[in-house]
Amino acid sequence: MKLFLDSAITEEIRHGLEYWDLDGLTTNPKHIKSSGKPFLKVIEEIAELFAGTDKPVSVEVNPHITDWEQIVEEGAKLAKMSPNFVIKVGASESGFKAIRELTSQNIRTNATLIFSVAQAWHAARAGASFISPFMGWKETYGDSATTFIMEVAEMLERHEYESEIIAAAIRNGRQIADVAIAGAHCVTAGLGVYQDSMQNPYTVHGEKVFQNAWDETPHE
Ligand code: E4P
């Protein structure tokens, strides 16, 4: 399963690239806002960080646009800025039409805000490179996000669609494990979620036990 960082903070992205060799990036308007920089400036900086790699970077079109032709127009402009850019489009009738059109122009897309297998199927049929089911949000509303990922994975496999699942809105290490087992191709989460998932209180305790043993052993 590929590891994508969900962020638009350049320091976080540099850290992820340097320490984890992350496989790609997802951004959204909330992340861009929290970068504190204007939209074009931050996405140019991000493009620079990924230049010369083949790692996908999802950049979302203006979420106010509901007309498919305008989504395509804006998506095509963004795609020209970097070969890494994958155009993130919200799931809707216009969104799926825009995905189909962008795909026909060889522009990769990420269908976002996916909450049902039917939406995932429309996205796959339209040619989306990535499909982003939102785990955390599903679970907040009491749905089984793991079952959802399994069903989307099975639907894609059974009908031989090439879209990859990016399990999104991940809140903890348990969910990372769940989506890996359920068949997600990629996971995207924030820096802190990944860092937490690398630690465990038993590991800290065990290190202490071994350090004590080390200190109590003669070393010459
Ligand atoms: C995924 O691509 C989204 O950017 C992201 O996971 C959104 O969810 P969140 O902001 O609730 O984490």
Automatic annotation (TrEMBL):
Listed A to Z, the keywords are: Schiff base, Transferase
- The enzyme's E.C. designation: 2.2.1.2
Which Pfam families does the UniProt entry name for this protein? TAL_FSA (PF00923)
Superkingdom, natural source:
Bacteria
Return the SUPFAM superfamilies for the record.
Answer: Aldolase
Gene Ontology MF annotations: transaldolase activity
UniProt key word Metal-binding: no
Q: Which InterPro entries match?
A: Aldolase_TIM (IPR013785), TAL/FSA (IPR001585)
Its protein name is Putative transaldolase
Name of encoding gene: tal_2
